[in-house]
Amino acid sequence: MLGIMGNAMNSMMQGYQRGLAIQARKQKGNRLNDQGLAYERRKNWSSAASSYRQALRYWNHPTIVSNLRRVEEELSGAADRRRKAERRRRAEWAAKRKRLQSMIGNLANSLGQGGTLGSTPDTDMNFVEPGGTGFFGIGGGVAAKNSAEPEANGLDFMGPKDPYFTKGNKNSATVDLRDTASGQLAVEALLGILSPDVTLAQNVAQNAGQKRLAESSMARGVAMAKRKQWPLAIKYFTAAFQATPTDPRVLFNLGLANDRAGGRALVAAAWYRAFLIAAPGAGNVAKVNQRVTNLEIETESQIAQMLQTAQTIASQISGKGKVSVLDRIARAHAENGDIPAAQRLVRMIKQVGQKSGRQSGWSEALIAAAQAKSGQFDLAVTLAKSVRFRPAQAWALAEISVLYAGKGNFAQALEISHQIGGGKEQAWAYSRIGALQADAGDTEGAQATLARIKESQIGLRLIVLTHLAGNLSRSGQPWHLDKARTHLNEVVQEANKIKNFETKLDVYLQVIKARIGMADLAGAAALHKLVVTHPHKSIGSRLIAQGKKDFKAAELFRWSGLALQIANSAQLGNVAQLLAQAKLQDPEKGALSIAKIAEKSARMLRRFRQL
Predict the structure, then answer these.
(1) Is the dihedral of CA 402, 408, 409, 414 positive or negative?
(2) In the chain, what's the furthest Cα-to-Cα distance?
């Protein structure tokens, strides 16, 4: 027993001695490494290398190995050659960066100084004093000249006292709820809807107050326009629009102010369109129509310039930044309807890197949706199924399935929507297909589609139930109409419980539309009072105007709503200002910003042309 214990103690002591020896060797190695670092700071490369080699005899640590390699590169001259190469690379990149930033700056300057047509608002349009000669006469009129710009001629700002008349038309467009729900912004109180208990005296007083506010805001807006304070002019004209949203003078002044401000070509064109609807017999209709055409062409030319600049920069950068820029350019081409150009860019994205599925996913999804919209459903479905980025694939399949349903092909729509594989996009597709089935009179099909939407997706379920109630009311039977009204009241009660405000307003809009279909304008107006934010409020205003057979007002609200959506877009708004910000960024980020602006502009131009 004593022998065993003695052997154990000897083993422990030997292990302890070995540990002390190892620790001593490490300390010796550390001291020699520190000595090498001291030599290296004095650029005594030979002594530093000697110290590191000795240190490695005691401790073969990766840091000491790295230090020795660095010093040996200094001794061989490799480090000096590497530094010179790095300086050359940085100088070349600085020169390239300067060239690319110059390209962005040139683009910003070009698009911020009167656009691309050489036709600026200052040479086409004039100012008029508030209360000056109006041009809204039947035979046109002569505009008063502004003393600050005696050389100008053509269109003028309208003062609050300038006369006008209106002639309506009976053309109207349907409401695309998904298009508007994706981000439209507008001004508060596009259309004030009076509840049934508002007295006539209150109505008159309210209208008188709105008129005074509009005239005061108009006068301030014209005063700011004369001083070329465009943001303030637009602010005051917008306040006048809030008070009197159908006044042609307000709409025209908003168009002209945005036009002269620069960088807001499509915003100005949309306001001009609203004005032309409000005053189709104005004396300056031909001139305004021509200006709208010029602005539309200018916007298209701007998009082409932005895409060309972004792609030129993308060709001179590499890595993930290059892929991101190419993806945005591809999306812009898809939004613009140029599918071949978008497809070429997707192929370029896939050539840049192996892991490009996510980067090209949204581009391919937008191409698939564009193909379906043009009737190429087979190509669209094949492409959508090949998208490797799951969220983009689900979005594309949902879009295609609803487009099929819009054509009345519910069987194919459901087959594609089944392949989405769950999630919000599938539930959205089911809700739209079910609503279209109900509108087509297929009650049984709509109920079956409704059953596929989970109980947790209450907002989407209520949309289908609203359309089912609308279908029930169209049967022509009085008791069915009463039952449909009861169902709609129940839908509103359930919608009031929804926590998501956007979803709640989506349901309210559907109920407003259904009540208008039942000739219940009072009920629609009462519910519209609960819709306090845009774009939902403007959509409701249009629906009620259509219900009142005021198709001119409905179209007017559509155009003014588009103008406000573009003006308030974070990625669009003032294009010149956004491009000016882009030229201050690194070329990679600047090119990405330009491509995003082009994509958004292309989307808005497409909507502009669809209205």
Answers:
(1) positive
(2) 128
Report H helices in 130-247: 177-181, 200-226, 230-243
∠ CA 370-376-172, nearest 5°, is 60
Are 511 and 491 in contact, with CB atoms under 8 Å apart?
yes
Question: Measured in whole angstroms, how far is the alpha carbon of residue 528 from the centre of its chain?
Answer: 26
Mean pLDDT score of the chain: 79
Domain that holds residue 26: 2-76
Amino acid at residue number 429: A
pLDDT digits (tens, 9 = 90+) for 273-317: 999 999 998 888 999 999 999 999 988 988 888 888 888 888 888
Q: Which residue has the tokens 């214990």?
A: 5
| Domain-located, residue 48 | yes
* Packing angle, helices 458-473 and 501-517, rounded to 10: 0
Report pTM.
Answer: 0.71
Q: In terms of Cα–Cα distance, which of 60, 33, 25 is closest to 49? A: 33
Cα dist. 440→102, 201, 343, 450 in Å? 57, 44, 36, 15
Q: Which two tokens stand for residue 267?
A: 């915003």
Q: Has residue 129 been placed in a domain?
A: no
Torsion-angle region of 224 (φ positive above 0: left; ψ -120 to 50: alpha; else: beta): alpha
Residue 516, pLDDT above cutoff 90: yes
**Does residue 192 have a pLDDT over 50?**
no
Is 56 domain-assigned? yes
Is the CB of residue 422 less than 8 Å from the CB of residue 450? no
User: Under 8 Å CB-to-CB from 476, ≥6 apart: which residues?
Assistant: none
CATH of the domain at 35: 1.25.40
Q: How confident is the model at residue 174 (pLDDT cuts 50, 70, 90)?
A: very low
Name the percent of the chain lying above pLDDT 90.
36
Q: Is residue 413 part of a domain?
A: no
DSSP state of 254: H
Predicted confidence at residue 356, as pLDDT, reads 53
Kindly state the tokens that stand for 258.
């945005």
Of 476, 544, 546, 479, give the one whose Cα is nearest residue 508: 544
**d(C-alpha 428, C-alpha 459), whole Å:** 10
Angle in degrees, 0-180, between the axes of helices 423-439 and 443-451, rounded to the nearest 10: 170
Contact 217, 237 (CB under 8 A): yes
Q: What is the residue-wise DSSP string for 282-328?
A: -TTHHHHHHHHHHHHHHHHHHHHHHHHHHHHHHTT--THHHHHHHHH
- pLDDT for res 202: 38
Looking at the structure of the chain, the number of domains it has is 1
